[in-house]
Amino acid sequence: MAYVTKATSKGGRAGRAHLEGNALSLAMGLPKEMGGNGEGHNPEQLFAIGYAACFNQAVLALAKKHGLDGQSAEVSCTVTIDKDETSFGLKADMSLKIPGAEKDKVQALLEDAHKICPYSKATRGNIPVTLTVV
């Protein structure tokens, strides 16, 4: 086992969530778009941050193979929650920007990173994920 972390939530989307040892503790809040006051954080924001950072690490690991500078890579993750057939569903849009790089090389890197990123593996077949070169 390489690493384990534990988060605990009380009060759901209007409560608090914290990491074990209180290394991070956040007030949670329902977004205005979903009827809340927009104060606090929401699970979709936290998922977007985690996915972007994890995906960026995959880009860093593979950039040299594609002849690209991984240190200049910028990964963005947009997470959307919306009603689906049964309740609510997520989708993610991943984008990769490497200033000055050839688009086809960045596209190949983006697709390879999507193959190895643990978040991509977890979402594959479960939620729609789009990949875009910026």
Automatic annotation (TrEMBL):
It comes from the Bacteria. GO terms for biological process: response to oxidative stress. InterPro entries: KH_dom-like_a/b, OHR, OsmC/Ohr_fam, OsmC/Ohrsf. Belongs to the OsmC/Ohr family. This is Organic hydroperoxide resistance protein OhrB. The gene is ohrB.
